[in-house]
Amino acid sequence: TSFGFQTVPEDAKEGLVKNVFDSVASKYDLMNDATSLGVHRLWKDQFVADLKPGRNGPLRCLDVAGGTGDIALRILDYAREKYADRETTVEIVDINAQMLNEGYRRFKQTMYHNTPQVSFHEGNAQELSEKFADNSYDLYTIAFGIRNCTSVPAVLSEAYRVLKPGGTFACLEFSRVNNPVLSTLYDQYSFSIIPLLGTILAGDRTSYQYLVESIRKFPPQPEFAQMIRDAGFRTGTDVDGGAWTDLWGGVACIHTGVKL
Ligand code: SAM
């Protein structure tokens, strides 16, 4: 790329992604806080609050690439705190056992531990096993995970398959900053500061370089919205902003779609 990183060949991507998350699993939360200055927490809060889980009764949710359980925990807390809902369930799927382990450890300290409200499953977003049946979930979430997948269309088509008709697909992901000034600052930050923090805090520069690079390669908002529609979902229109919501001018973005 123009930033002088080696580009990762697509066929090597899956193994590499696994290594990246093996290497960052235990430092994952610390690094998230350090690299985003804590902002990822606010984005995740908004992501879940916008979905209002529990408002129309308990939901069956699948949180894919759910790793450390950040989204699952917020869904369960939101439903319980706002709607006294203790029946919503979240199944967490991740390709990486160590990330799931971190999630399990975190949930151990919550009231959801050992209840049917949460469960952990090793699996690939691109090819969910038959354990995840067709037409069976009300809500599918994927946060900061889809850009790590080799085939985004495969992930979307699996999401479509497992959702019930009328069910919601929701994705939180880093995206494109449109403002040129903000964009320059952001480039400086992500290509120098993030790998540096990776080195200092986690002793691992390559993994964080990969993460930054993967953000640049992910399709911009309108293109990703079209991919969601191509998978069969209905989204709002790009013109009225209904297909996505930019966070921080596009540093991150929420896309949603409804299965017809
Ligand atoms: N959703 C969590 C969050 O927002 O904090 C974790 C995000 S973390 C940046 C990305 C996660 O995606 C990792 O846990 C990684 O193991 C997982 N992942 C990468 N490729 C995957 C795939 N093909 N299928 C399922 N999970 C995958």
The total beta strand count reads 8
- Please name the fourth-level CATH homologous superfamily: Vaccinia Virus protein VP39
Structural shape: globular
Please tally the helical runs, counting DSSP H or I stretches of 4 or more residues.
9
**SSE string, helix = H, strand = E?**
HHHEHEHEEHEHHHEEE
- Cofactors and ligands: S-adenosylmethionine
Q: Structural class of the helices, strands and pairings? A: alpha/beta
**Gyration radius, in Å:** 18 Å
Catalogue the unreliable spans: 1-8
Main sheet makeup: 8 strands, mixed
Number of domains: 1
Query: Which architecture name does CATH use?
Result: 3-Layer(aba) Sandwich
Q: What percentage of the residues does DSSP assign to strands (E)? A: 15-25%
What is the CATH C level class, in words? Alpha Beta
CATH topology: Rossmann fold
From the N-terminal CA to the C-terminal CA, the straight-line distance is 39 Å
Provide the helix percentage.
40-55%
Average pLDDT reading: 88
In brief, what are we looking at here?
Pathway: Cofactor biosynthesis; ubiquinone biosynthesis. This protein has 260 residues and is α/β, with parallel strands linked by helices.
Helix and strand layout, with pairings?
Elements (H helix, E strand, L loop, with lengths): L12 H12 L3 H9 L2 H13 L8 E5 L5 H14 L5 E6 L2 H12 L9 E5 L14 E7 L8 H11 E12 L5 H23 L2 H13 L3 H10 L2 E2 L9 E4 L4 E8 L1
Parallel strand pairs: 1-2, 1-4, 2-3, 4-5
Antiparallel strand pairs: 5-8, 6-8, 7-8
The structure holds S-adenosylmethionine.
The site of S-adenosylmethionine has 21 residues, from helix 1 and helix 4.
